[in-house]
């Protein structure tokens, strides 16, 4: 009977587009749809989007998925939303959007981040919000509007994050949840509530902020007019959902102690789950509330992971691109095969992947990329191997900070484009000293949001129970002790190079 079959939707509001996926009770994709939208850069370092584009993309993709699937609307039991974090949406008293949203990658707020450190103090900020003042995060953006567009700030009555604006469209509720709110720098992360001290000292009225829920809690239900537009039932539940990485964690099964994932996209992320709050006093990694109620996650970020390989491909791998086109394979597949022919350590050639400065562990915007040990015997394939190893060393740096903080990392998933490379996965397994697996589903954030909806709908009793029932592993790569020893020798040297060049990087930035 239809009533025994439960379907749930995950909506993922990304930077390039919004994707909606309808899953069955086993996490199998029934239908999916994506709609893209532009990003605006009115000045160098600025990045904005129009929230109306997100709303239209969500409504279009949900409608398309419902129609395409042929599923009876009575079977769709819940909606979860994930999305890009840190964006600032401001509404007036009539719920009109006051200005384009300033999104996560915008870098205009250096003065405001300094202001936060001055008013509150770096140590106090880390103690309460679990992170130092960061230019890309929401609090600094609110201060920027207050300082530079006071007439807009005066009219503001509601502040929402990108996915929470979509929730407002669906339900009419002003609500967020702990994982995304952790990226605003207004949340008391250890206590999972807004910090009255931070808000008061920054002059941000707490009345502007939405109600905070846990990620799997019901935050509202579908409004009748919207339900009619979408072909869904009015009253369908909408749960908290999660920020993109926290949702991806649920969708890849990272929801218990010891579990972690590595994403090699443009940037690299190492993300570990922890049942107790743990904060790095130096601010090298981010601590946020997890999508599992009462638990947390730690996240290290390297700026140019997949970007390093893409940069190398675009500038030096024209022949591979041409051959790949003739063979009808991916050029990265051929690059992998070439790098495999070179031994560990690339015949004593190391690469520092700091093309865009670095976050974890150096927090240095002036750091730059380096080939170290280049000699006349090295060829393009040595450089290719060195680039892949250098990225793997930078990700190991993140894991080392976790271990220093007492965070157990013994079960690692690999995601993102780079996670499809068997060679890269093998490097990570040997450098981390643990198994590296790939998830069976490629729908990480959308599946995570849908699983949270299934908990809110009462289909599963808890987030770990939902994950256990649905998330499956695909490939498993084991570490090899002899390779581990060899990598450790080169990793040890890799760690010496940045400190030796730190002052030179800073001088280079002034030339």
What is the end-to-end distance?
Answer: 72 Å
Strand content is: 15-25%
Q: Which structural class should the secondary elements be placed in?
A: alpha/beta
- Please give the largest β-sheet: 7 strands, mixed
Radius of gyration: 23 Å
Q: What is the residue-mean pLDDT, rounded to a whole number? A: 96
Sum up the overall morphology in one term. Answer: globular
What does this structure look like?
By secondary structure, this protein is an alpha/beta fold. 41% of the residues lie in helices and 21% in strands. It is built from 18 helices and 24 strands. Strands 1, 2, 3, 5, 13, 14 and 15 form a 7-stranded mixed β-sheet that branches. Helix 16 (444-456) crosses helix 17. The longest helix has 30 residues, at 481-510. The protein starts with 6 loop residues before the first strand and ends with a helix. 51% of the residues are buried. The mean pLDDT is 96.
């Amino acid at each position: 009977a239809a009533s025994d079959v439960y379907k749930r939707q995950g909506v993922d509001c990304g930077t390039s587009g919004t994707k909606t996926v309808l899953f069955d009770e086993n996490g199998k994709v029934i239908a999916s749809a994506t709609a893209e939208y532009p990003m605006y850069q009115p000045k160098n370092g600025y990045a904005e989007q129009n929230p109306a584009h997100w709303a239209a993309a969500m409504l279009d993709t949900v409608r398309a998925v419902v129609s395409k699937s042929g599923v009876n609307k009575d079977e769709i039991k819940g909606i979860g939303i994930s999305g890009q974090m840190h964006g600032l949406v401001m509404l007036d008293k009539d719920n009109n959007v006051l200005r384009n949203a300033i999104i996560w990658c915008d870098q205009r707020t250096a003065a405001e981040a300094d202001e936060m450190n001055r008013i509150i103090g770096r140590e106090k900020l880390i103690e309460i919000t679990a992170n130092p003042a960061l230019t890309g995060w929401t609090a600094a953006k609110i201060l920027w509007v207050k300082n530079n567009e006071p007439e807009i700030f005066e009219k503001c009555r509601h502040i929402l994050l990108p996915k929470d604006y979509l929730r407002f469209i669906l339900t009419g509720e002003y609500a967020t949840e702990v994982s995304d709110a952790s990226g605003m720098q207004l949340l008391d992360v250890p206590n999972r509530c807004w910090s009255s001290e931070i808000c008061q000292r920054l002059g941000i009225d707490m009345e502007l902020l939405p109600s905070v829920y846990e990620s799997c809690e019901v935050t509202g239900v579908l409004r009748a007019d919207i339900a009619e537009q979408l072909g869904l039932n009015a009253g369908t539940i909408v749960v908290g959902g999660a920020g993109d990485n926290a949702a991806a964690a649920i969708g890849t099964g990272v929801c218990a102690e010891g579990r972690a994932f590595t994403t090699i996209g443009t940037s690299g992320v190492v993300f570990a789950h922890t049942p107790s709050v743990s904060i790095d006093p130096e601010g090298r990694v981010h601590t946020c509330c997890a999508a599992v109620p009462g638990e947390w996650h730690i996240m290290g970020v390297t700026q140019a992971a997949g970007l390093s390989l893409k940069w190398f491909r675009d500038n030096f791998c024209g022949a591979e691109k041409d051959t790949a086109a003739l063979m009808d394979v991916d050029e990265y597949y051929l690059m992998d095969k070439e790098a495999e022919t070179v031994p560990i350590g690339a015949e004593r050639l190391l690469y520092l992947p700091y093309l865009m400065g670095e976050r974890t562990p150096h927090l240095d915007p002036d750091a730059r990329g380096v080939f170290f040990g280049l000699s006349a015997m090295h060829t393009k394939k040595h450089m290719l191997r060195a680039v892949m190893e250098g990225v793997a060393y930078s990700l190991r740096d993140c894991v080392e900070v976790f271990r220093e903080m007492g965070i157990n990392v013994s079960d690692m998933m690999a995601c993102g484009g780079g996670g499809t490379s068997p060679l890269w996965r093998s490097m990570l397994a040997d450098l981390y000293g643990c198994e590296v697996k790939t998830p069976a589903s490629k729908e990480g954030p959308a599946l995570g949001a849908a699983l949270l909806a299934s908990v809110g709908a009462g289909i599963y009793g808890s987030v770990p129970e939902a994950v256990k029932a649905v998330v499956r592993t695909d490939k498993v790569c084991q570490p090899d002790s002899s390779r581990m020893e060899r990598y450790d020798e080169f990793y040890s040297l890799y760690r010496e190079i940045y400190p030796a060049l730190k002052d030179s990087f800073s001088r280079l930035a002034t030339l």
